[in-house]
Amino acid sequence: MGHFLGITVNEKLYIKDPQSSELGQKIIQNGIILIDEIGFENFTFRRLASKIESTEASVYRYFENKQKFLIYLLNWYWEWLDFRLSNSTINIKEPKKRMTVMLMVLIDAAKKDLEVPYVDEDILHRIVIVEGTKVYHSKEVDQQNNDGFFAAYKSVSERIAKGILDIKADYPYPRSTASLIIESAFNTLYFSEHLPRLTDIKRDQKDQSDELLHMLEFYVQKLLA
Amino acid sequence: MGHFLGITVNEKLYIKDPQSSELGQKIIQNGIILIDEIGFENFTFRRLASKIESTEASVYRYFENKQKFLIYLLNWYWEWLDFRLSNSTINIKEPKKRMTVMLMVLIDAAKKDLEVPYVDEDILHRIVIVEGTKVYHSKEVDQQNNDGFFAAYKSVSERIAKGILDIKADYPYPRSTASLIIESAFNTLYFSEHLPRLTDIKRDQKDQSDELLHMLEFYVQKLLA
DNA sequence: TCAAATATAATAGTAATACTATCATTAACG
DNA sequence: CGTTAATGATAGTATTACTATTATATTTGA
Q: Thinking of the domain B11-223, which architecture would CATH place it in?
């Protein structure tokens, strides 16, 4: 079982729980840094092992392969985000206000309420933006979905869908719109940096996340009008 | 330069124009089929060569590597889609009607108006849905963007953004919304098949693309209200 | 406290991948 | 008819993605 204040990751994603040992935590910590630095396609267990001054074989004792490792990290992120979404809205009764807070948490503009020493959540957030959709766009998606690899992502999505229905109970597309909001948030952050012609949010402006929040609120408000 | 009724693909994406020779066309045709069958991660030039009874070295004479090959195929698709969007709306003056037609073309519900013998557009469409976002989510994105690898995609997106502004000239987020529409359309088709809890559109229903069209029209109508 | 179990390190090895190079053969072209 | 261009055949290299084996250090618990 996973550790540390409740971030539990699907057991099928690892061979030996990396949160349970020092080496495992170093793998997580430096894996996040390395994937962010060189990108997932260039990332190898050999390089990671060398970075942490361990061996390839040792890393393989924790994770079957780098794909599972990435899914593990993303799962960790979605569990963490799901916790933060839950935690930050627990005392807010008004549906629209709840939605605003969820959007803030989603784009990471809210302050962190759960810190784990071996996970840099900001770097992990970047990884989720860049590599997030790769894991379910594979030939193994159906098998992996059966194994519950995407449960945490679906939980986040359903939480937002529920927030939509709380605002407007007869809204016809809560799930699609929830996915749309999540993907729009991430795409905007990525596009503003790399493909600016695909978005209206500028990278340079210092209140970028304000602008993004306004846009997402605009979407929600218009769609649920 | 590219061939066949105007599908021209960025020259930097290939070493030798595959549309100009029989072997090149076989590479395109069977490459599409093979990627669809086994997925891009399992796809290799060796396997492709064996499928077309040629050699790895021969395939490498056309494309530098499989990543460029995928970008080539996606580019081909975006050029083709851009042409169809343009072609199918050229005589429609009413902005809302134009948008509807564009949405229909986007989800492939409209009949084809340009057929190329060595490209199965339906299979290619599936590849775009599954592998489409992988190409720009890489460490090379900025260099590749400079080289114009995503120009065709941006052209499609801008065409839709323009369609949005034609309906409502002061709409604040035309580009983001255009991206959102494209990605929503593709995600819905993928999710309905593999991660149905992330969408409200069911796979089984026989009028699936009708439902998808309705949803996209709902989005456009609400957002531009 | 000693023996046993466990975790990691060190090393080696294999099959597949992602190419590059060379040379022979065929087709096409002027 | 001779030259050029395209493809095929074959081989080779570096890297990747693992698996296996043995040695050593650490922890545990009887």
A: Orthogonal Bundle (1.10)
